[in-house]
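Practice set, problem 2.
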Amino acid sequence: MAKVKRQNIREIITKRFILFFVVVIMLFVILVFNLYKIVFINGDTLRNDVFNTYVKERSVDATRGNIYSDDGSLLATSLPKYRLGLDPSVYNRNATSEQKFKEHIDELANALANFFQDHTAEEYKNKIVSAKKNGKNYLLLNNRLLDYQERKKVAKFPLFNLGEATKSGIVFDKVNVRYAPFGQMAYRTVGYLKDKVAVGIEGSFNAELKGTPGKGLFEKMDKNTWRPVEGGEESVPKPGLDIYTTLDINIQDIVETALMKAMTTYEGDYGVVIVMETATGEIKAISNLSKNANSLTGYSESFNYAIREARDPGSVFKLPSMMAMLEEADLPLDMPVSTGNGKYHHYNGTMSDSHPMGTISVAQVIESSSNVGTMVLMKKVFASKPAKFYDYLKKYHLIESLHFQIQPNPRPNFPVPAKWDAFQLLWSSVGYSTQYSPLQLISFYNAIANNGYWVQPIIVSKATRADEVVIDYRASQVRDQAPLCSPKTLAKIQSMLEGVVTKGTANNIKGTSYGIAGKTGTAQRIINGRYIPGKYYTSFIGYFPVKKPKYTILVSIDNPQGHAEATYARQVTAPVFKEISDNIYLRDMKLHRKLAGTLPDSLNKASLSHTVHPMDQTILYSNFGLPKVEEDGSWLQFKMDKQLVQNTPLSFPAKTVPNVIGMNLRDALFTLENRGLKVKANGLGTVVSQSVPAGSPTRKNLLLQIQLQ
């Protein structure tokens, strides 16, 4: 019985073994078949899949073009930055590389820890050793971007200093980063490309700046890192065009300083300044400051209000209304206009003047900024033909978009005559029930300064590649061939604008040697569809010098606060205009006059030699009776010998130390500090020596000593 049982157990074991053996053989056959299928049948397909996953043809960005100011100063450029990577596999190639690795890995880890200051030397060592052990051929050591000088320093670290990458393992992944040499200057206007948001010149001229991408093969190293495959580049990127703006960095600095000072003083919600060159329509400066988000203090550029924000313009719009009325009815400037008690009632609306004026002249309607006077005249001239007023505004470029180079710049919000009633006609004539951007308004005022000729504002003059002008944007700039109005009307308008400053609402900025003409504007702000008393949008638009305008300037500040009396343009924006115009006048030597001619008999025995700043010449010719002559824009070597006065223009080459010998202390400081030099002065009188010779190269914060006697 026992023998039978043992025989049955043996048979069972034998059968199970045979079954197991058969299963193993079958699995082996299946495995061999699948290997054959993978290698010989599907091999090409699978290899292509892997290649496409880990080696891909990717776009190679072109070097982005630079953005320059009008004098060639860099406003934006692309600088190469580098991420530091490592190919640990090079240390596994032979006994020599293994030995080098063991000798210097600790030194390398210490160098990396000291340089980046984010991990310990032990952590860097473990990261590298682990990658080497696992056979990785790429390791991102740190995500921080290095500049070129830092790259040179890192390349001297132990192991990295072995020379070519095949020995050292060092990998620098190049990344082009946009850099603004002047920091936040004109930040919103120059613009940026960030998180798929494109603004300013960077955004509007992206097609020109970005160039043509190339194509190349890249190997995937980890989740977010791709490295170029040597020799795999199929097409070379074509660099973008360089863009030259019309911005003047010196005027831009003046504008930003003055606007920041005003915003801090009056605590406005936002402020705008635009400086336009009268004859050319070129924007020389543009600044937008608004309160920092989520902060109770501080201002920065976060939105281009100058171009994109439209508001009721207020009293500055009385000027196009007046121009249209003068053209249509030839109103005499001394014609009386009754404003009664300073209130104008129409249906359910009432418009008031700042105070009762009684009977005033047509000229005083603008000079005193009378809402009632403007409405009385508007009803007299255009009540029966409102479409005619609309036609005038269209001629003045106040209906359609400016098609400015920075996009978007929407058209003004002004209803067509078919939707008008008398209320709309009268209220729009004084700057209400319409919306205009600051740029649209300054363009109209600039035409008045430009002898009546309207020119389209422009902020980019050309696009170049090397020295070749590829696109000349001035060639497509719109310039009216006929003036906006007759010479007679223009003379009246210019007279009224000058009167605003000499005897009207802006007489607090009169008395300059060069003269200012302009118009104040104070409009009630709309909040939730309602005009709110005590909340104002203030502005001043004008030009200077008054007799031969070179610059037109707009200053606007929204919702000024902080000072109970400072709610009107007279107190808020007009002084900012004057501060800007004063500083531009002092800087722009071509606005000043040159001395030449014969001395009066009282000085016919005098002899003098002096370096003269052009602004001092007014004092000389007024006090000494010297004749006025034109000036070419240079500093002058003033020489007076007996009856003869001679002037020799002086020039100071860029990036060199100027010659200040012969200057007074103020002029010497002005000249040297504008070159970024630090100055130490000794003595009184005029400069007789300087510690660094004229013509020497300048460098930032160079200390220069001057001796006066």
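Problem 2, part (b): a different protein.
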Amino acid sequence: MITFRARPAEFPVAMPDQAFETAPTVNRNAPRSQMWRKVTLFGLSILLAGWATIEMYHVLNVSGVTSLEQLLLVVFCINISWIAYAFVSSTIGFLAAMVGLFRKRRATPGPALLTGRTVIVFPIYNESVDRVFATVESTAESLANAPGRFECFILSDTNDPEVALQEEAAFELMRTRLSPGVLVHYRRRTMNVHRKSGNIRDFITRWGGRYDYMIVFDADSFMDRETLIELARRMEASPATGLIQTIPQLVGGRTLFSRTQQFAAALYGPVLGSGLAWWAQNEGNFWGHNAILRIEALASAAGLPEIPGRAPFGGSILSHDFVEAALLRRAGWNVQIAPELGGSYEQGPPSIIDLSIRDRRWCQGNMQHMAVLLKTRGLTFTSRMHLMIGIFSYLASPLWLLFITIGMMLSLQNMFLTPEYFGESAALFPSWPVIDSERSLHLFLITMAILFAPKLYGMIYGFAAPRWRNTVGLLRTFYGVLAETILSVLLAPVLLVEQTVAVYRVFTGRDGGWNPQHRDSNEYSLKDTFRHHTPAIVLGVLLTVSAFAISPLFAAWLAPATIGMVLAATLSWWTGRERSGDAANRMNLLHSPDEIDPPKSFLDSVADRAHYKGLTAPSIAGLFADSNLRTRRSHLVDTYWPLERTEVHTPLALARARAERLPTVEEYISALAPKEMLALLNSPRDLEKVVDHYGAREQQYSTGTT
């Protein structure tokens, strides 16, 4: 007997596509950011980058600057600008974070009882059912007696038929376990239009009017009860705010790679996040999850159109979050980052390979932002900087590789090539590429100091933060920074090659697609790891041989980059194993406060997984054979098909047609492609017609009629 509905009644809200070429009317009453902060950040960054570039010019300009040296100088200027920005931002963030430690923060003004209705959405795509539904259950239960109205809504984009049936079974089980009054809803889309951004948009345009605010989870997100309530309270206290982004900490890492990332995020994250929040102010950014949005603002100002052209540059915007934040600010809404607000967590990739798979999609999405920057009018300077920083975070890798290559070409030219006596004008003496080695060493040391300064800031922050002192301790923090620094130096060249390959794939027209992320360790075999990292290994060997051909001293100077590349597969395999992570744990390395004292939201989710492990879901054949099963699941199916009147959903049409051609239900089921099977599951009426068709055919055979 069905006593509940999977979804509430629809309450539509319009979410029109925003015209990139036309700037909207801006709410001039919205609070503005303080320009002096941006001038300070970018002014200091430009001064530092300019000084370093001038120093590099003097390094090269001993006996004139050749064409190749000019190219090296240009690439260096671009790269050092990125490093200078990161250094200045982290320096400001360090100061802001230290002040925050010793300054008592004022409580956010707001009513004791929240009047707005908040929905926590869980966009999922072929995820591990036990993990997702355990998190939904624990999150919903934590808000059972919250001072406000909270609901949870699972927004499935799953296109694997077996996973879809598991989700339905898990949702039915969850409903029997939830406390009275705890509201959780489930919707699986029939058509995955525009991926995650389309998933959210479908929800807003159908149920958005039911809610005031929306907190977005990722499939591996966890948030404490107090954080969820505080986000809603801050939204109610600030009607001009459209988005508040928390800074999620990493939790639950088991492999050496994930524990290294977890340690770095916990120690350096508050410093970097404080710097970003300090200069961005009301023009912050959005990272797609662990944030609260005002539905009115998102619906009216951030509907994303498709970018003209084919993937990878055209089509649906993959990194939709950056663009949505920029469009919200363009319309006058405040977009804030809250580094001081704890209780926000996620899980990181367990290995370099898993990180690379995710990075390919992120890289493609960030490269698409080039078109957004060129086409969109009315974006603020800060929003444009967010987009440019995202773009350059991937372009930096191939540019550094180009810098190394040009430097090696200069050295090879000096040793092996015939001097060019006649360039643009006749010269008596050849133009040799000569550098000032002493000045070069000084510049190199200063660059290294700038690069590693954020790690020093993080260590000092850890020494000063009470939670770090009380859980990890000063000595373990120090050893953790040393271990993380050594590993990051070894892995940086591997990640440089991975990001360079990702950029290359985008610029050669290869679509990165949208694959579900791995949340747990896959323990890739050594063979698979070597296959994946072949480009890095080959490049490392070539650079090493070329460097030794120049001189052993040059090879030693290049060793920090080449060693990591040559050992890429070994390092990736070793750091991607839980055994390596456990060994580091036993050695008291890479501990973070949230590992020693895990957050309740994470522990509750892990505890609830046991209820969904091994959950038995109906099979496809079982659905065909049991009418009660089909009736039970009918209320779970979202039968909304976003089709024009003349459109036909090809997989569903094929599923219908196959029934006419195949004589038995067994042959029919085995012949259906996954998309066709899913389409049939998403259309209970067509499923019943197919079942009736084969039932009638069996009856004809049993009576001897045709």
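Answer key, part (b): Residues 113-252+281-314+323-348+363-390 form a domain with the Spore Coat Polysaccharide Biosynthesis Protein SpsA; Chain A fold (CATH 3.90.550.10). The two ends are 38 Å apart (CA to CA).
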